[in-house]
Design goal:
- With 465 residues, this protein is of the alpha/beta class.
- The protein has two domains: 4-202 and 377-460, 3-Layer(aba) Sandwich (Aminopeptidase), CATH 3.40.630; 206-259 and 306-372, 2-Layer Sandwich (Alpha-Beta Plaits), CATH 3.30.70.360.
- The protein is 34% helix and 21% strand.
- The chain contains 15 helices and 21 strands.
- It has helices at residues 4-12, 14-26, 37-50, 66-69, 130-147, 169-175, 177-180, 232-241, 264-272, 277-284, 295-304, 344-357, 383-395, 411-417, 443-460; strands spanning 54-58, 74-79, 89-95, 116-117, 120-122, 153-159, 184-186, 191-192, 199-201, 203-215, 221-222, 309-315, 325-326, 329-338, 364-372, 375-376, 400-402, 405-408, 422-423, 428-429, 440-442.
- The chain has a six-stranded mixed beta sheet with strand order 1-2-6-3-7-19. Strands 10, 12, 14, 15, 16 and 18 form a six-stranded mixed beta sheet that branches. A three-stranded antiparallel beta sheet has the order 4-5-21.
- Strand 4 (116-117) and strand 5 (120-122) form a beta hairpin.
- The two termini are 18 Å apart.
Length: 465
């Protein structure tokens, strides 16, 4: 068990942890708008150096290649064990970019205030992912201050494009594969449930993100001309309605062809995973789930069922009062969550073929935005015991094991390129309103997650021995 003096050091250092997290929150870093990215990368590097982590700012910039110059940097950090330099290497993967704050009018405070109130820190990135990042940095800092060394080697890979699909992280991984080499990866987040139990996730869903555009007249027209001019909004609505049934089933031919079925062991984990359906519905203000699924079926859907989601729709006039127009174009942004063995490139071709077969081939333009494959760490990986025991001690309760998060990240690229297992564990309260107005993180969970990271570091060198 972790030395109690380290527990005390973490407890006494929470004021500094909160202050550093507030600094990070107050520095905007919205990757979708390229807002504050360079300044935030610089701040992250400064905080890591202050913690005793040797830091390097990595880029993909090539001389004369202008396209590479605007790609956000990756912050690489490393601490090599002095007493055990040949020990295993643990890598922390995080990101310093955040989601846009819109709709800004729904925020009760400045989205970049970092306000502390009622044991919470508010602001964009407070939970996702600056709060998680600070727990990793501080765990290393506290151990170094106490012992002057670490029991295993530590690396950090902190990117700036996670919120826009980690567009270039695979290229970074391939370019710096030797530098990033590790024996295990602690992922950028981990949820804590409503009963203060940490959730250890072994995987992530994949993603296909596309943009569908229907075009009509060369300019918005008077709506009386709808008898002669086809409205592109109707065309887009009809195309969208052909993709999915009312019960959530995706109607594209062969969409589920490669879907990996749950193993017996995975089904057992799913059945044992607690899920408060009533609390979930109350927090989201809904009365029922899609197709009225309940119990085990709802849990299976979260971790391992593909989805087809309309992320955004835009066409015509949506301002106050009437404006009788026939819009010149209509746009929809769609995200499809994928599960292991589904390939985004294969799936986008199936989408294109579906629209063509249904008469929309020449009427709907498809723009491929991003694709990411799903991944799951095997249940029998020995590192799971290290993570599980560390989380149990730090949080004071047995962790929940989940075979996969319902969200998406570049876990497949890390696991396959670095040949390292990945585990999600951290401080994010399940109802912390990430990606929404009034995002917050809980200070008590930041404290426990920092202790969890310190415990993982202390144990990691012995994994598999």
């Amino acid at each position: 068990m972790l030395n109690e003096s380290i527990n005390a050091k973490i407890d006494s250092g929470m004021q500094h942890l909160v202050a550093d997290l507030q600094r990070l929150i107050r520095q905007p870093s919205v990757s979708a708008k390229n807002e504050g990215m360079t300044d935030c990368a610089r701040l992250v590097a400064q905080l890591m150096e202050k913690a005793g982590i040797q830091t390097e700012v990595l880029t993909l910039d090539r001389q004369g290649d202008r396209k590479k110059k605007d790609i956000p940097s990756v912050i690489f950090g490393e601490v090599r064990s002095k007493t055990n330099p040949n020990s295993k290497t643990l890598l922390f993967y995080n990101h310093y970019d955040v989601q846009p704050v819109e709709p800004v009018e729904l925020w009760k405070e400045d989205p970049f205030s970092g306000k502390v109130s009622g044991g919470r820190i508010y602001g964009r990135g407070s939970a996702d992912d600056k709060g998680e990042l600070i727990t990793r940095i501080k765990a290393v800092e506290f151990l170094l201050k106490k012992y002057g060394d670490l029991p295993c080697n530590i690396k950090f890979v902190i990117e700036g494009e996670e919120e826009i699909g980690s567009i270039h992280i695979r290229e970074y991984l391939l370019k710096y594969k030797h530098k990033f080499a590790a024996d295990g990866v602690i992922w950028e987040f981990g949820y804590v449930d409503n009963n203060s139990r940490p959730i250890i996730s072994l995987g992530m869903k994949g993603l296909l993100y596309v943009e569908l555009v229907a075009k009509g007249p060369i300019r918005d027209a008077h709506s009386s001309l709808a008898v002669l001019i086809e409205n592109p909004a109707w065309r887009l609505v009809q195309a969208l309605s052909s993709l999915r049934s009312t019960n959530g089933e995706i109607l594209i031919e062969d969409w589920y062809k490669e879907v990996r079925q749950f193993t017996r062991e995975e089904l057992e984990i799913i059945s044992n995973e607690p899920f408060d359906e009533q609390e979930f519905r109350e927090q989201h203000g809904i009365e029922k789930f899609v197709s009225n699924i309940l119990g085990n079926e709802a849990k299976k859907a979260l971790v391992g069922i593909p989805t087809c989601n309309i992320a955004g729709l835009n066409s015509g006039y949506t301002g106050k009062g009437p404006k009788t127009i026939l819009p010149s174009s209509a746009l929809a942004k769609l995200d499809f969550r994928l599960v292991p063995d589904m390939n985004p490139k294969t799936q986008v071709n199936r989408l294109k073929n579906h629209l063509k077969r249904n008469g929309f081939g020449d009427l709907i333009e498809i723009g491929f935005i991003h694709g990411e494959r799903a991944y799951r760490t095997p249940i029998d990986n020995p590192m799971l015991t290290t993570v599980k025991d560390s989380a149990a001690e730090a949080f004071g309760s047995n962790p929940i094991i989940s075979i996969s998060s319902s969200g998406t990240g570049p876990m497949h690229s890390f696991a396959t390129i670095l040949s390292a297992p990945c585990f999600s564990v951290g401080s994010t309260y399940v109802f912390s309103q990430i990606h929404s107005p009034n995002e917050f993180t809980r200070i008590d969970f930041l404290n426990k997650a920092t202790k969890c990271m310190a415990r993982i570091i202390e144990r990691f060198g012995t994994v598999g021995e």
